[in-house]
Structures are given as structure tokens and as C-alpha cells.
Amino acid sequence: MKILLVEDDPMIGENIQIALDGEGVTIEWVKDGVAAEAALAADSYDAVLLDLGIPGKDGTEVLRGLRARGDNTPVLVITARDTVAQRVQGLNIGADDYLVKPFDLEELIARMHALVRRARGSVQQVYRKNDIVINPATRQVLVAERQVVLSSREWMILDALIARPGAILSRAQLEERLYGWSGEVESNAIEVYVHGLRKKLGAQFVVTVRGLGYMVEKV
């Protein structure tokens, strides 16, 4: 899962970044409205966490622009603007949910996951292949009815692949899932995590398409 965080408060931003990293989420963090619009124009995200009171361009303008372009990326507004009128305004201009500061990080994470599941088709379908069952909503992985524990990075690779079964994802696309456009990429990271997935899910589960990338088969 790849999230854009738009937040100018360094303490709040760092806490969210740490919490989401522990959830196996790739997070790109920008601190003003202009940078937010540039990021949204250049890339796609599973959800946006958007503070309204940001410099450069107000968060409401960023949200209006996003919806005006026909972009339906889920947006969770996180803001100190806590009057009923302000909340209604945020929802009316296209926010999918609204969380008032200060908030609990567990609630933020739960709401974010709910928005992403809804956007993926009112809960992404469970992936089943032979004796492997993967539930994206709960992040539960079963092999022959036994639970398999994945690292957060392994899950990020797996989540990207099962979201588009039959589609080939390049190494660059998977690296972006792990590190975002601002992270330092380890040269053999994808191979390491794919190897880990194959050990846990079977040698043939992740298919290498020579010269193109990786895929999982359609169910």
C-alpha cells in the first residue's frame, strides 16, 4: 500500500510515518500544498492523508483540484479545523473521511485501511491459489490452513502482486512500493523479499518473467 501524507507539522508527520512504516506501508511525505499537487500529478496512491492548514496552497484547494481532475483516490482529512461547518465543508468538497487533531494513531490507521478496502471494491477479494489463502483486509496468509508470518516488506511486495494477479510488475515498480520516490534503494532488495516469499509460499508462487519483472497467477 502506498500513501501520500500531506502534513507540515514535523512531530505529527514523523509519528504517522513511524506508525505506518510498522504497518508495512510505503509513505511519501510532503509538507505543503504545492508539493502535494506535484506528487499527485506525478504518481498514484492508494490513499491521501491530507492536512488542510498547510502552506503554499491550502489543503481544501488541493482536494478541490484532485476531484476536479476526476481523481477518486481516497482522501482522509486530518486537521485541527474542528467545527461542524468545517467538517461538512471538507466532506462536501470531496474528502472521504475526516479526523480531527489530536487523534489516536490506531484510529488513523484503521480509517485509512477502511478507505483503501472500500476503494478496491468494497473490500478486496481474498486471493486463493491451490492451498494458499491470502486475505488483504486482515493481512492473514494461510498455507495448507496454517498461518504464515511475513515481514512488513514481504507483505508489501505480496500485496502489490495480488492486487493485480496476472499483471507483470517490474522491479522498479516494486522498489517504488518499498521505498517511494525519495527512499534509498538497496540493490538486491526485491530479490531478497521475493526469495523470502517463495520460501514461505512455495517456489512457484511468485513467477519471474525474464527481463520484465514478477507476477502471481490469476485465480
Biggest sheet record: 5 strands, parallel
The neighbouring-strand order within the major sheet is 2-1-3-4-5
The count of β-strands is 11
Number of domains: 2
What class, by secondary structure content? Answer: alpha/beta
Element string (H = helix, E = strand):
EHEHEHEHEHEEEEHHHEE
Large-scale geometry: elongated
What percent of the residues sit in helical stretches (DSSP H or I)?
Answer: 40-55%
CATH topology of the largest domain: Rossmann fold
Residue-averaged pLDDT, rounded? Answer: 86
CATH class of the largest domain: Alpha Beta
Q: In a nutshell, what does this entry contain?
A:
Residues 124-218 form the OmpR/PhoB-type domain. The protein is α/β, with parallel strands linked by helices and 219 residues long. It contains eight helices and eleven strands.
Structural description of this entry:
Keywords: DNA-binding, Phosphoprotein, Transcription, Transcription regulation, Two-component regulatory system. It holds the Pfam family Trans_reg_C. The chain has 219 residues and is α/β, with parallel strands linked by helices. The protein folds into two domains: 2-120, 3-Layer(aba) Sandwich (Rossmann fold); 127-216, Arc Repressor Mutant, subunit A (Orthogonal Bundle). The chain has helices at 10-21, 33-42, 59-68, 84-92, 105-119, 152-162, 171-179, 189-201; strands spanning 2-6, 26-30, 47-50, 75-79, 97-100, 127-129, 132-135, 140-143, 146-147, 207-209, 213-215. The protein has a five-stranded parallel sheet with strand order 2-1-3-4-5, sandwiched between helices. Strands 6-7-8-9 form a four-stranded antiparallel sheet, with no helix packed on it. Strand 4 (75-79), helix 4 (84-92) and strand 5 form a beta-alpha-beta unit. Helix 6 (152-162) packs across helix 8. It is elongated, with a radius of gyration of 18 Å. 33% of the residues are buried. The mean pLDDT is 86.
